[in-house]
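Lab notebook: predicted structure, single chain.

Context: the supervisor wants predicted structures on file for every construct in the current expression panel, including those that have not yet been purified. This is the next one on the list. No modifications to the sequence; it matches the entry in the shared construct table.
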Amino acid sequence: MLRIFERKILRKIYGLIQEGDVWRIRNNEELNRSINREDIVKFIKAQRIRWLGHVKRMEIGVMARKMTEGRLFIGRRKGRPRLRWMDDVVADLKVMKIKQWMEKMKDREKWRLIVEEDKAHPGKEGHSLLHLEYNLTFLLAMHGLHGGAVG
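Prediction complete. Output recorded below exactly as produced.
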């Protein structure tokens, strides 16, 4: 759904193409060439991993770290437990087969290489987008860009 929205916006940005007397919308291949085959889903997932390293290097009392590591101690709801932002990011790291990521994130240069690898990782393409919208809302809320509650 995110990719569909991205295509819709790109078509508005790049506009129509005139071929003789006929105007037409750009097809997906033309849009891919225009954006150098960048993928919004890979970009967002790489940014999540980058943010994780940033937050984990923060001091313990910082609000962003508290929000990322904190848990609410309320009664369990019915049904399947909701995935947390951290669960999704850890799943991405497992898909990439990154081991001992807690130690690697302490070194900014190593972590930067992991983020760059994530952008190019072929296994990311088929990974579930189920919680991507929630995670985007969470990141916006962390930066104070979203007025609503997270979740």
